[in-house]
Design goal:
Shape: elongated
Helix content: 55-70%
Number of strands: 0
Number of helices: 2
Structural class: mainly alpha
Radius of gyration: 25 Å
Largest sheet: none
Distance between the termini: 72 Å
Length: 66
């Protein structure tokens, strides 16, 4: 069973260069920073009430005095 597991494991054929590794990491961090910036912007717009792109239920008081 262990032998079967070792045969089917994915193994890189060559070592990844430092520049490629750093480039991938920088790209991932840039994407994460952009998403964080979008989330903060959306949160600010929701709090100020100027949000156009985010739909959420508003707390409406029910008047069932009829």
């Amino acid at each position: 069973m262990l032998f079967y597991f070792l045969i089917n494991m994915a193994v890189p054929k060559k070592k990844t260069s430092k520049s490629k590794r750093n480039s991938r990491k920088a790209h991932w961090k840039r994407k994460a920073a952009l998403e964080a910036k979008k989330a903060l912007s959306l949160g600010k717009s929701v709090l100020t009430g100027r949000s156009n792109s985010f739909v959420y239920p508003e707390d409406e008081e029910e008047d069932d005095d009829e």
